Amino acid sequence: MLLHFTKMHGLGNDFMVVDLVTQRARLENEEIRRLADRRFGIGFDQLLVVEPPRDPDMDFRYRIYNADGSEVENCGNGARCFARFVLDKRLTHKRQIRVETAGGPLVLDVQDDNQVSVDMGAPRFAPQALPFDADEDLLTHRLDVDGKSVEISVASMGNPHAVLIVDNTDDAPVEHLGPAIEAHPRFPRRVNVGFMQLVSSGEIHLRVYERGTGETLACGTGACAAVACGIRRGLLSSPVKVHLPGGSLQIDWAGGESHLIMTGPAERVYDGRIALR
Ligand SMILES: N[C@@H](CCC[C@H](N)C(=O)O)C(=O)O
């Protein structure tokens, strides 16, 4: 069968977006890995699937798969592309869209300048929220990696994040520490790893080694987690501009149980069809 899809990106974090409201398909793990391959397939960091909601108070169900085929709880850059996609494909006329994800509900707001703001919910720092093997909810934790002790903060944005502060993201040890922390036994469901350089109380540089994908040009939930950890530690104050290799996002967060708002662009690249095996 031929599956219609749209290739999109949010700051270079790229997606294959598939409408399973008007099409039928079974996308198994092996098929997703084949489609994600940048030489033998379409190539993407995440596959985003639009499904009808199971909860009548929601507009859609938003499902997310990493390039390695694993299904995950949340994707921030993907959420902005999801909103553009359902409007462009006329699956809704609403500019405020409520979606259910495996990590909880999200509210997506498409603005007049085509920027999309996403209510990402409240960050959670308790180790069991990720999960992370630690006795207490601390601002920072020590983690032994390859015989060295590194300082991390942890946060869940529906999906799990570890955040390290580095002097300069340009020469941060992303390729070495990223995979080692992603697969660290204290993170039983693996983790996304952010490397944050503080520029001022309202500006950071960030690189993210994503669980199930590797380093991407931008990670929306990673930006939210880094800002939440920075504000909680008293190092940042809202709003914070986050500069990622693919571009910049704005994150607003008043702290505590308040919801974090992420604002940034969402771009369509092309529409296509591909034969499924
Ligand atoms: N690119 C994303 C995050 C995608 C999921 C992540 N790799 C995970 O496994 O949790 C974003 O923009 O948030």
Automatic annotation (TrEMBL):
Q: Residues in the active site?
A: 75, 75 (proton donor), 219 (proton acceptor)
Q: Which GO terms describe its molecular function?
A: diaminopimelate epimerase activity
Q: What is its main location?
A: cytoplasm
Pathway stated in the Swiss-Prot or TrEMBL entry: Amino-acid biosynthesis; L-lysine biosynthesis via DAP pathway; DL-2,6-diaminopimelate from LL-2,6-diaminopimelate: step 1/1
Keyword Isomerase listed? The answer is yes
Binding positions for substrate per the UniProt entry = 13, 46, 66, 76-77, 159, 192, 210-211, 220-221
Q: Which reaction does it catalyse?
A: (2S,6S)-2,6-diaminopimelate = meso-2,6-diaminopimelate
Any one GO cellular component localisation term in the record: cytosol
Question: What InterPro entries does the record point to?
Answer: DAP_epimerase_AS, DAP_epimerase_DapF
UniProt function note: Catalyzes the stereoinversion of LL-2,6-diaminopimelate (L,L-DAP) to meso-diaminopimelate (meso-DAP), a precursor of L-lysine and an essential component of the bacterial peptidoglycan.
**What HAMAP family does this protein map onto?**
DAP_epimerase
Tell me the protein family, please. Belongs to the diaminopimelate epimerase family.
What is the protein named?
A: Diaminopimelate epimerase
Taxonomic lineage from the root: Bacteria, Pseudomonadati, Pseudomonadota, Gammaproteobacteria, Oceanospirillales
